């Protein structure tokens, strides 16, 4: 698949994706997924290839969003919806509940805490939702909303990543 050359774009490495989708194995089938900061779409397309029901890709870069559309067409991914939008603005719009959300914003942005709060307060999460968090290993995890708990947490190189569950 084509990959846009853009500063700050860092596709999630294969070994991290493999671990993540092993964690999600029992919940991915038919899941509704949101891939914020989609970039190359690696997480969302992997979710579709593993049986997700739909993936909404949100990417603010016009070039990256165009390549996501090309990739979706090339893969005949009819369950992929691409939105060219800023993630924060998107979360202030009309919501739908998702089973799985992928959050891997640019490491320099320090947005995870705000994104988690917006997801929690905005009606974006289905009952028992799973949220994937990815950030620099140099940062502590942000304060998570009440009822959220980290169920898996690992570090690979300079990347820290976790899977969070939401309990109602």
Strand order of the largest sheet: 3-2-1-4-5-7-6
Question: What is the CATH C-level name?
Answer: Alpha Beta
- How many beta-strand segments? 7
Largest sheet: 7 strands, mixed
Question: What would the keywords be for this entry?
Answer:
Rossmann fold, alpha/beta, seven-stranded mixed β-sheet, disordered N terminus, single chain, globular, 168 residues
Indicate the topology:
Elements: H1 14-23, E1 32-36, H2 42-49, E2 54-59, H3 62-74, E3 80-84, H4 87-91, E4 98-103, H5 112-121, E5 125-136, E6 148-156, E7 159-166
Parallel strand pairs: 1-2, 1-4, 2-3, 4-5
Antiparallel strand pairs: 5-7, 6-7
Report on the architecture of this protein.
- The structure is a single chain.
- This protein has 168 residues and is of the alpha/beta class.
- It has a single domain (19-155), classed as Vaccinia Virus protein VP39 (Rossmann fold, 3-Layer(aba) Sandwich).
- It contains five helices and seven strands.
- It has a seven-stranded mixed β-sheet with strand order 3-2-1-4-5-7-6, with helices on both faces.
- It is globular and about 40 Å long.
Question: How would you summarize this macromolecular structure in one to three sentences?
Answer:
By secondary structure, this protein is an alpha/beta fold. It is built from five helices and seven strands; from the N terminus they run H-E-H-E-H-E-H-E-H-E-E-E. The protein has helices spanning 14-23, 42-49, 62-74, 87-91, 112-121; strands spanning 32-36, 54-59, 80-84, 98-103, 125-136, 148-156, 159-166.
